[in-house]
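Researcher: Sequence of LacI family transcriptional regulator follows. Predict its structure.
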Amino acid sequence: MPGPVETSPAPSDRAPTMADVAARAGVSLSTASLAFSGNKPVSPATRERVLAAAASLGYAGPNPLASNLRRGRSGVVGIAVGRLSTAFRDPAALPMVDAVSDVLDAAGFGLLLMGDDAEHARLPLDAVIYDICGRETWTSYDDLVARDVPMVVVEGPAWPGTTLIDIDHRGGARALARHLHDLGHRRVATLMLEPSHPQREREAGLREVFPDAEVVGSCASDHDAAQAIVSDYLAAEPDVTAIVCQSDVQAAAVVVEARRRGLDVPGDLSVGGFDGITTPWLDLELTTVEQPLADKGRATAEAVLARIAGEPAHDVVLPVVLRVGGSTGPA
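Model: Prediction complete. Tokens:
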């Protein structure tokens, strides 16, 4: 077998190519390509020569994007998260997206964060994740369906042709309400999220136990917005002993505002939340419904990979658990 053919290095004004590697190793371009891809058998000796030639030239390997495009893929999955400027103010969003990114990265896919701009959805994406963020309509949905782009929706809506990854909102809210009922609370109010599938399900679970619960107001999972709403509510000195919030960020805001007004939590007012995030800025742990944020992200990414591969990806509803902390006590 002939030894490696000595050639001059690739010109310094450009990156080395697979052709340069093939020439340095003394093999054909197709053999060099197969040595990298592993799609067909190449003798160990030949593969070693090709890799040695690549190392001497500083060639890292074929462009994965170009390879994906030849297979009709971009290697990129989009995730629509609403307004990028506010999407990650809620601590519950970060563990979920981190888990999605970890699974997709291990499978060789990149993750593109997308805002409300429909232009992003027109990019050559292998799949799209729609993270509800309180919204239930998206102008890009019809376009993605027409292009046959696989879609996975997180926490609703259950659009035709998509895979839904959800949690047991209703069961979790019911468990929190029963906890308060067992503590003797009968006069209960609720601070809700903006209209959405999670908002309706969490309210329904609460009303199974407290059908007459008073609505304080509604807002996104935003501390300042929630505190402003509950400030106006508590200023009227309502006859309630507990406030159930639909997110932990809202619940933390209620605790802060109640204390600012001289109320003891939970002595004068019990406060419950939803999500299970940590609240290091408070000196107590919230009573909350803990959802499996990382598991939700992994389930989302696994559904995406299945849809890209043309395999079945069934809807998933993940369980939640009640975590009793120091923000609730006897009425």
